């Protein structure tokens, strides 16, 4: 999972007619650094799969036999605790990969929060591509570094931040993955209960904090699943505890 912005590498040119020519997330996806011929061969090794909101892509403890590149939609990563409670570990956005692991099993259940499209590849084929393409290996290293930073950020968020700081940080994270334009409308197809499970808060607390941000004119709720940041500087300050 990647809760931070991505590094956009220099991409090889693709000719019209290449199966990945129109990919909207090629500059974000791990496989985007492959040369045209290698990318074509990689793409042909697996199908494009579609999931409806609520569908499960992989279950926790399933064999990690495939890797997936999310090209559209949103996935939720979660784990069941021994007492039956659910902990959401993160969300995957277009450009993120699912299933890159050193283990034989998936550590989390991945579910579609919104209608989602993924390119699916056999893990064995992905491992072969990494072994034969140094640029792909370097790209994986960069992504792993971002994943580690995101995990540390999440530890701070859950361990030290107040409810206000957690919600503000979450909205900034969503904004960073969706847009960089001040005042732009941002999709938020994530329920309050999912936000609460991710942030380690009660759903009532999440709703109260969002309402407070709205009243303070820091954000504007523009629809059932959309919002707009009105005062980014203030949201930054709140996320930092100022």
UniProtKB/TrEMBL annotation:
Residues 161-233 form the HTH crp-type domain. GO terms for molecular function: DNA binding; DNA-binding transcription factor activity. One of its GO terms (cellular component) is cytosol. It comes from the Bacteria. The keyword Mitochondrion does not apply. Keywords: DNA-binding, Transcription, Transcription regulation. Gene3D superfamilies: Jelly Rolls, Winged helix-like DNA-binding domain superfamily/Winged helix DNA-binding domain. The keyword Plastid does not apply. SMART domains: cNMP, HTH_CRP. Residues 49-147 form the Cyclic nucleotide-binding domain. This is Helix-turn-helix domain-containing protein.
């Amino acid at each position: 999972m990647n809760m931070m912005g991505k590094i956009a590498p220099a991409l090889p040119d693709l000719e019209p007619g290449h199966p990945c020519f129109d990919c909207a997330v090629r500059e974000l996806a791990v496989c985007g650094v492959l040369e045209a011929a290698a990318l074509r061969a990689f793409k042909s090794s697996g199908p494009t799969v579609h999931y409806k909101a609520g569908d499960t892509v992989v279950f926790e403890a399933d064999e990690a036999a495939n890797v997936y590149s999310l090209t559209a939609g949103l996935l939720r990563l979660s784990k069941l605790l021994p007492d039956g409670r659910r902990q959401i570990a993160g969300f995957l956005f277009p450009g993120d990969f699912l299933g890159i692991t050193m283990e034989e099993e998936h550590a989390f259940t991945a579910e579609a929060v919104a209608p989602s499209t993924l390119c699916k590849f056999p893990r064995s084929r992905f491992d072969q591509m990494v072994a034969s393409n140094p640029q792909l290996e370097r790209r994986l290293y960069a992504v792993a570094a971002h994943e580690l930073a995101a995990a540390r950020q999440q530890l701070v968020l859950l361990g030290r931040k107040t409810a206000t700081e957690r919600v503000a940080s979450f909205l900034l994270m969503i904004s960073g993955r969706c847009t960089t334009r001040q005042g732009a409308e941002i999709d938020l197809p994530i329920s309050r209960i999912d936000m609460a499970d991710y942030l380690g808060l009660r759903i009532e607390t999440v709703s109260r904090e969002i309402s407070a941000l709205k009243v303070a004119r820091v954000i504007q709720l523009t629809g059932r699943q959309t919002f707009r940041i009105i005062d980014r500087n203030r949201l930054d300050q709140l996320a930092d505890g100022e």
